[in-house]
Model the fold of this input.
Amino acid sequence: MRIIAFVAVIALWEYSAGPMNRALFAPPSEVLAAANRQFITERTIWAPIRDSVFVLFVGLGGGLLLGIPLGLVMGRSKRIHFVLDPYVTFLYVIPSVAFVPLLILWLGFNQPFQIALVFESALFPIMINAAAGAQNVEPDLIDGGRSFRASQWQIMRTIVVPASLPFIFAGIRIAFSAAWVGVVVAQMTGALAGLGGMILRAAATFRTADMLVPILVIMAIGVTIHALTTWLHHRLTPWHRPEGNVGA
Amino acid sequence: MSKLQAEPAGRLEPFSPLGVVRRALRSREGLMVLSILVVLAAWEAYGRSHPLFTSYPTEILAAAPRIFLPSLVPALGSTLTGYSVGLLLAIPAAIAIGVAMGRNRLVDLILGPYVNALYVTPRIALIPLLVLWFGLDFRLRVAIVFLSAVFPIIVNTYAGMKEVDQALLDVGRVFTANRSQRLRTIVLPGSLPYIFTGLRLGVARALGGVIVAEMTASISGIGRLLGNYGRFFKVGELFVTIITIGILGLVLTMGLAFIQRRFAPWTAAARAR
Done:
């Protein structure tokens, strides 16, 4: 059934693109030809893919490294929560795009800016989820630890962190997707780099088939990230079923 | 609360600044206010010595009335017109598609893969294509808002349909409710918490989407404003715009939470962040 639907969609696309202006639309056959050129004969797409994925992992890694501990501490300590909460809440509701001009002023158009934007996109979802996780730890467990005279650090390491894992993974899943959006935004608004830059460059010269190839690659990477993180989430914390998206 | 805690005598100096700070450190509001004051003061001090890149709170405050009427209001107007039209189109369509996918296996099988793929794709990537199709104005905004909002709402509506309590459905069947009655009285109210999650996501993503569109395609609106202030190093004005967007985001989130509490009170408790 799915295959039939897929074939029908492709056929419809090919058919409807036929009479349209090539600058506006490209049929699948031409997209395939463009993909063949970019992937195999001219190999022009590999460097942008590497670029984009590199920025993704550096920015995301930074966001997780800072966001998880900060979120856990925020969830555990009321004081730190009160001190940080106004900023976290306010910064979280601002679409990260709004920071683009400011970050460009501070960091220039190139990789540092891209990484910073990805970092910013990943930081708040993971922080908020880690904090929610630490807040939702069964108080009995913590009391149990206390009555065995566990130190704050021991309670954190042996009780809070494992108990918050489901939330942390949910946060990682959201942060991963948000970071990928950040990569594309950064590469389309700063210096045209990576896959985002390829799209804009092809669009500027009306090579629609060439433009659709990086779009499809971005889609494919997005789908892969989603599938991979969902699988990991199921796998590592099987008692917690991922549902909804706690604020992506 | 803890103000009542005993303090060593002699340290209790009600009017000394240190005493005020010490007491503030114990209450929630006190800590928040203190935290904000400290950051603002540090920003002011740092900003005055590096005005070109960071601006500072008093300058931002001075910039706000300067740009409010001539620039900010018209920009907000054109952004929000496209934004609301896009949402008004996206929300009913998305809920209808989500319900159809949840109720009908065939629709689910056929649409499922595309919806899921587009849900996780950064819609930003489609902006150049949308520019080719819709030009640079109102229709582009509507299109990007629609595309940004529609998929989270579909996906969450669908998830909500799947999560409806089977026991409730059985009771409905026992009382011979027909399909549309069950949909109206059991399935839809039951999936509302998910629909609201979808709405929250969709509304936020759409705001981001329309701003990127305006920034990259350089049309009018709040995104264009951001881009321009950045380009001309008007950092104070830039901060005013960013803060305005933040307030807009807060208003939208809080408005949605209010609607949820008012019209679907049974869903709010489970979803409170």
